[in-house]
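Section: Multi-chain targets

For targets with more than one molecule, the full set of components is provided together so that the structure can be written out for the assembly as a whole rather than chain by chain. Components appear in the order listed by the source. The example entry contains two components.
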Amino acid sequence: AQSVTQLGSHVSVSEGALVLLRCNYSSSVPPYLFWYVQYPNQGLQLLLKYTSAATLVKGINGFEAEFKKSETSFHLTKPSAHMSDAAEYFCAVTRRDSNYQLIWGAGTKLIIKP
Amino acid sequence: DAGVTQSPTHLIKTRGQHVTLRCSPISGHKSVSWYQQVLGQGPQFIFQYYEKEERGRGNFPDRFSARQFPNYSSELNVNALLLGDSALYLCASSLFRSSSTDTQYFGPGTRLTVL
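Its structure, encoded as tokens over all components, is:
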């Protein structure tokens, strides 16, 4: 069975500092991996996705993530945090042979300190 | 272009009642998926519909049902509501069925509170 683990329900960084949100997955077959962002009282917006092309994936708003098969990880990073990045971030996985079901992590709330 | 729309935005029901939630996908999108997001957790997959047929079902009881109409809009129905059904219900649409090539676009959700 597939699963997603996001380490840290809350992550706090200073404005301008590096953002690192961790995601580890388990999957018996090569996965597709996603990062979504959810702003307060809004739906989920896709940041980036890995679908077996380049292992370093660039997304919107300056975020990127690297797929590391040996570590079963897909951590999200951004070099310099901005106040507008404050939101909840979700990592999700699906299998290439699945029926389109996304399996989600519990989310990490990113707090930006001025 | 209009994004995914959901109605109502908020809903308060009592235990035992039933509820119908509605979703309109982005124009041209043929696939609609429903998710339940309990406070403090990630979304849980409930259903996927493609071309008006159920293509996937998550681990939810039979009290949950859905359908997709010829215009690709969708309804989620929940019968005999329980307190534990209180959650944000999210609808997502995409062009096709496969998550490997598609992006799912999410609506703002319907906040259901069961008292």
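Chain B touches chain A through 28 residues (CB under 8 Å).
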